[in-house]
Amino acid sequence: MNFKMDKKNNVSLHQNTNKMATNRTFTMLKPDAIENGHMGKILSMIIDAGFTIKAMKYTRLTEAQAGAFYEVHKERPFYGELVSYMTSGPIVAAILEKDNAVEDFRKLIGATDPAEAAEGTIRKYFAESKGRNAVHGSDSDENAAIEGAFHFSANEVF
Q: Which residues are catalytic?
């Protein structure tokens, strides 16, 4: 999986066809979590839950990058708002490692809607709303690989 920019700085994703289960997942701490000063607390919860950080960067998505990352939602009514939100401030992108990483991380972050998130989850503690939900977590091993490769080159992952 890789991404490239065309002459108009549009980003497109190119997926490798190799499929294999991994012990890695991808996360982004979203602009609301950073803006509200929760970065350290969220990273501590991730580490305390047994995840190892294999790659991490503090960055800001361009509109083209956010649009490409969320391209799967392009036809949905919230797409424009999502892209605008994800470019509104810095994010922290990270690749995490642990046995059963994707499933365990999804449990740690909780339901998309913080009102429905279980006690003790990241979204229960730090999300403001369903739209400003503090953190992204990959929903499958395949998407974890795609999303991680979108944000990190091979030499940035340890």
A: 136
